[in-house]
Amino acid sequence: MKDNRVPLQAHLSMFAAEAIWGLMAPIGKAAMNSGFDGISVVSFRVAGAALLFWVASLIGPREHIPARDIVKLAGAALLGIVFNQGLYNIGLSITSPVNASIVTTSMPIFAMVLSFFILKEPITWKKVLGVAIGCGGALILILSSAHAGSAKVGNIRGDLMCFGAQFSFALYLALYNPIIRKYNVFTVNKWMFTWASLFVLPFTSWHVSQLPWATFTVATWLEVGYVVVFGTFVSYLLSVVAQRVLRPTVVSVYNYVQPIVSVIVSVAVGLSVFTLPQGVAVILVFSGVWLVIKSKSKRDEEKRGKNAKLNDVC
After folding, report:
1. How many CB atoms lie within 10 A of CB 12?
2. Cα separation of 190 and 140, whole Å?
3. How far is Cα 68 from Cα 12, in angstroms, rounded to an integer?
């Protein structure tokens, strides 16, 4: 019974993490409109999360980690946090939100290709079809929610930064999946965000010190607090729980949940209406996720091959 619950827990954890990230988009944007910028938000995220994960590790399970693995987590922090968060937040501040949202749908494609070359995961027709269907659904959702009259013109530099953020996270999933599975979520995250802080803060501290601190309201600080506590601390805990069980391609496809959450929130607060194209998009996205989940991994194929050999012997 316990084994049956583990995959379900991983899927629910990944879904919850993506939902939190989807809600973080409008909240984080509100904080930026109040005086914060992309560099400042990234700085608060890495420093705040590092502090929270170290406090949590004091009351959580103790785990020894050798120095060589701590160094490996430095590389994971660069790809999974510094480049991913930095490129996306700065890119979003340059290009339009619609362009940035469309670019995020490219991550499962990067993950599928990198997993093929690095992890030797087979590219099956189900994976290809699932990614294509999910990507199509996300595009319909984003484009149907955009209003041509108020949409801002995109910027090629911002678009390329957002593409780089997706590629960076896909490469992180492919390269560092083994070490993520090796240690508990508190150990992995406290060291990753510690490294991220060391990489980011020396270059951004002066910039953060120039923020208009006196103009920030309580609402602005609550918005930043959500980004740090829920959008970073809680969501990264949940995502690492999922990454320990799920394949990188499956993890990446859950990226499509983010725009769905954004639309639901917009409808709930009266900023938008739920249309037929949005309904079709929801069906397509979850159909794509289902197809990728049902696709066999390399481990599944090897296990099936071993079982077939045993049956032949018997």
Report:
1. 13
2. 38
3. 32
Terminal CA-CA length for the chain: 29
- Count of alpha carbons within 13 Å of 280, Cβ hemisphere only? 11
Least confident of 73-77, 245-249, 274-278, 302-306: 302-306
| Dist. CA 190–CA 57, nearest whole Å | 8
State the pLDDT at residue 119: 72
**Res 66 pLDDT > 60:** yes
Give the chain's radius of gyration (CA, Å). 20
CA nearest neighbour of 254 among 169, 164, 156, 154: 169
Torsion of CA 258, 262, 263, 266, to 10 degrees: 170
Q: Give this prediction's pTM.
A: 0.74
Report pLDDT for 78.
95
For residue 79, which amino acid is it? L
Q: Which residue has the tokens 């729980």?
A: 241
The residue with greater pLDDT, 147 or 42, is 42
**Residues counted in the chain:** 314
Q: Is the pLDDT of residue 75 over 90?
A: yes
pLDDT higher than 50, residue 312? no
| Distance from C-alpha of 188 to C-alpha of 45, rounded to nearest angstrom | 16
What's the pLDDT score for residue 71?
Answer: 93
If you average pLDDT over residues 264-278, what whole number do you get? 63
Does the CA dihedral 300-122-178-196 come out positive or negative? negative
Q: Computed from CA positions of residues 80, 259, 237, 107, in that sequence, does the dihedral angle turn out positive or negative? A: negative
Chain mean position to CA 174: 14
Contacts of 70 (CB under 8 A, 6+ apart): 191
Q: How far apart are CA 45 and CA 136, in angstroms?
A: 31
Residue pair 164/102 in contact by the 8 Å Cβ criterion: no
